[in-house]
Design a protein that fits this description.
3-stranded antiparallel beta sheet; globular
């Protein structure tokens, strides 16, 4: 393995991103059984709703796939003070409480979750003038947790292919969508609160810090959930799948011709 500084690593990654873009090169979709993995390769993406994920945490009695705060902006208020702006005289003082913002229409929005690893998060094993070799940045504990929570099979999906298929699907159905990286943060972070206040579609991309290990990229579509829960975007010819426990043994190689080596 070549040794290099963090600055050299970031400069190299930046060159790669200038050619590829800033999204991951591929997404990982975990499935509980092999049939579901085959469905994904055929372009059948099983979706669930925010309401489903909220209910799942309650029924499971623990956090994991379920999230009681899914598509809810929940703010803890320490105190509420109504005062005269000229004299600062306190007119009303309120005790602490919680404010929840939720839009009923969001409860039925189809959501498809995938794992995405941007290039800057991958571990570089080796670099030369023709090729860079990467590994996943997960610990053994993270590998085990993902397999336990999300399934025994994992599908590798070419990022650009699925993005093109989703774009065509939404054009045909005349619906808006968002496909992007989930932000893990506190409930009261200002951009998270503003996304709810303005009903921006970015509100679908926020989750609590607890879930950061999931490294989720999320597809949300502004349409009713299909009766069978499948978002059928057409066969993904570059997708493949394997047992999830093989992930930690994989290496990912990127070949190039005009990229400066470290």
């Amino acid at each position: 393995m070549m040794k290099y500084t963090e600055e050299e690593r970031l400069n190299f990654i930046e060159q790669l991103k200038n050619s590829w873009g800033y999204n991951p090169m591929f997404y990982l979709k975990f499935c509980s059984i092999e049939k579901y993995a085959k469905d994904v390769c055929e372009g059948k993406l099983y979706a669930n709703t925010p309401e489903y994920f909220r209910r799942l945490e309650i029924e499971a009695k623990g956090r994991g796939q379920g999230d009681a705060h899914e598509l809810i902006s929940s703010m803890k208020v320490q105190d509420i003070v109504l005062s005269d702006s000229k004299t600062d005289e306190v007119l009303i003082y309120g005790v602490e409480g919680t404010i929840d913002i939720r839009f009923k229409d969001d409860d039925d929005i189809p959501i498809v979750s995938m794992v995405g690893i941007p290039l800057e998060d991958m571990i570089i094993d080796n670099v030369d003038e023709n090729q860079a070799d990467f590994r996943f940045p997960f610990t053994d504990e993270e590998f085990a947790k993902m397999e336990e929570e999300f399934g025994n099979y994992v599908v590798f999906i070419n990022a650009k292919e699925i993005e093109q298929h989703v774009k065509a699907y939404c054009y045909n159905y005349g619906c808006d969508y968002i496909l992007d990286k989930v932000e893990y943060c506190e409930q009261n972070r200002i951009d998270r609160m503003q996304s709810f206040n303005s009903r921006s579609k970015k509100r679908f991309l926020y989750k609590d810090l607890y879930f950061a290990y999931q490294r989720e990229y999320r597809l949300a579509l502004a349409r009713e959930m299909p009766k069978d829960h499948y978002i059928t975007i057409g066969a993904l010819t570059n997708a493949t799948y394997m047992k999830a426990n093989q992930l930690k043994d994989l290496a990912f190689s990127l070949r190039y011709t005009q990229c400066k080596a470290i």
